[in-house]
Design brief:
Elements lengths: L3 H26 L4 H26 L4 H5 L7 H25 L3 H26 L10 H22 L2 H29 L1 H5 L2 H24 L4 H24 L6
Helix pairs in contact: 1-2, 1-5, 1-6, 1-7, 1-10, 2-4, 4-5, 5-6, 6-7, 6-10, 7-9, 9-10
Length: 258
Amino acid sequence: MHELPLVFFTVLGQSAAGLFLLAYISRRMGSIDDKQLKTANIVAFIIMIIGLVIGGLHVGQPLRFFNMLLGVGRSPMSNEAFLSGVFVGCAAATLFFTLFYKQTLLRELANIAAVITGLAFVWSIPQVYNIASIANWNTGYTTLQMWMTMLVGGGALAITIGARGLGITSFLIGTFAIFASRAGYQAFLTETGPALSSEQTGFWGFQVVVLAVALAAFVGMALKQRAPKATLAVCTAAVLLAELSGRIAFYNLWQITM
């Protein structure tokens, strides 16, 4: 699928932004320590870089990425590319002041900047797909699912690094929002693209089932106050796969309105 690089770019980027946000808030709340925050920032940075590298395959030639920046301020796609770069830069600065040039104030400022630019990056993504000529995408459900990936993917990652309270809360909100909106989303797609929508049943079914299982697993582990790191990692990987599946279904809905 030609859009597969974008599937990874958007899902991994949104999840990384979510982890930066939740880990920073958790540290400010005292739920995690500096070591766990450092781990979270490293994991989020790596995930974002992986998403950016895979997403670059969609461009074809690496230098075309810079051409995309020519429309910053007027082109949603250019804004997305620009903000992804700024987010990565702030994330890299956070790690630099954490691991190499250890300056508490600069680290704090860079971390705050990474959180803010991460949110701006997540905001920019649905702007690219709210296109009047593509009825299946031109809906508030597009924006909703992009933000919920940040909460679901970021929440699962946050749980894994130790920010379980805020991570589980984020995951619960995102998962329930996805479940609650699915019927309305399906009804909308039945009107705008019934044939394409019916073809995505397997992808959406996989997403819902995995998220439901992960939800039960995370809540169960929270109640027991104990969870093996390997189990958490497997659950988080499954959650990311579920969101990738849902995003594949979204891109498969591409259809020019006649």
